[in-house]
Write a structure and sequence with these properties.
Its main location: membrane. With about 325 residues, this protein is mostly helical. The protein has a domain at about 90-305: MetI-like (MetI-like fold, Orthogonal Bundle), CATH 1.10.3720. The protein has helices spanning about 1-30, 35-40, 50-60, 65-75, 90-125, 130-145, 145-160, 175-200, 205-215, 220-230, 230-255, 260-270, 275-300.
């Protein structure tokens, strides 16, 4: 187990290096001139002389391999440069906005797990009955409705029509509810269907029949035998949900004016703020890889057959 974890951690620099190179090249190939954007933000006339000065100031006048090598050398010391827009260190900017995004993604993950487990279990236990039909219809709608459109619906209903919740900003649970539910919609629907399918697969296994034959209570059969053994694919999907939530936060934060790093990154895209976008992608990749590592460890702990390095386990 320890060797596996260390091996995965050793792969992290390689993954970050590959991501940084891809992001660097994509940003440079995208249309538009960051020097022109910088002049516009600085309210400097975009004359040819000023463009040359801006490119030289921002280091964009050098060949691409030199630009990447210089950036990589600084990034290895956690110096990701300064934002073209604010002039502040990029890492300071990311760390300022990151807690809001983690709060939103964490609340959405709690909603996903807290609602999908009882809904999925209920749908499996009441297969082809009304609770199952309602749950499947909800899951179908959840994977079909874009989270930004669902966010607009929530704002229209609970803010404009009912006046129950504030529509924008951050601060208190009442401002967290709508963006968290909007962000969790897709993951909630997918997880509910996955739990239902896993429960249906395990409920006809022999160990479940033997437990009932021994007179074990129905609650213990459902949760200690069926659900525990259906937990493996759920843990695997949790790692995917982290990526979905982090990616979806970029859009949801813009809808609800949530002051997170995703909304900050969207503004950086429009301003062609290369240092911010490169740092943003590396931070998000690190979080995603670490969360998937945690899921793999939980996967091995939950199922002794999958213990890494043990008999019958993966190498």
């Amino acid at each position: 187990m320890a060797r596996y974890i260390l091996g995965r951690l050793a792969m992290l620099p390689v993954i970050l290096l590959a991501v940084s190179l891809v992001v660097f090249l994509i940003l440079r190939m995208a249309p538009g001139d960051p020097a022109q954007s910088w002049l516009r933000i600085s309210q400097i006339p975009p004359t040819e002389e000023n463009l040359v000065m801006a490119r030289e100031l921002l280091g964009l006048d050098r060949p691409l391999p030199v630009q990447y090598a210089l950036w990589l050398e600084k990034a290895s010391r956690l110096d990701f440069g300064r934002s073209y827009v604010t002039g502040r260190p990029v890492m300071d900017e990311i760390l300022y906005y990151l807690p809001a995004t983690l709060e939103l993604a964490g609340a959405s993950l709690l909603i996903t797990m807290g609602l999908s487990v009882p809904l999925g279990v209920l749908a499996a236990l009441r297969k082809d009955r009304l609770p199952d039909h309602l749950t499947r219809a909800m899951a179908f709608a959840g994977v079909s409705i874009p989270n930004f459109w669902f966010g607009f619906l929530l704002v229209w209903l609970f803010s404009m029509e009912l006046g129950w919740l504030p529509p924008l900003g951050r601060g208190g649970w009442e401002r967290l509810v709508m963006p968290a539910f909007s962000l969790a919609l897709m993951s909630l629907a997918v997880n509910t269907r996955l739990i239902r399918a896993s429960m249906l697969e395990t409920m006809h296994q022999r160990y479940v029949l033997y437990a009932r034959a021994r007179g074990v209570g129905e609650g213990a059969v459902v949760w200690r035998h069926m659900f525990v053994n259906a937990l493996i694919p759920i843990l695997t999907a949790t790692g995917m949900h982290v990526g979905e939530l982090l990616g979806g936060a970029v859009v949801v934060e813009s809808v609800f004016s949530w002051p997170g790093v995703g909304r900050f990154a969207v503004g950086s895209i429009f301003n062609r703020d290369f240092p911010v976008l490169q740092c943003f992608m590396l931070v998000m990749t690190t979080i995603f890889v670490v969360c998937n590592l945690a899921v793999d460890v939980a996967y091995a702990v939950a199922d002794p057959r999958m213990r890494l390095g043990g008999a019958g386990g993966r190498p």
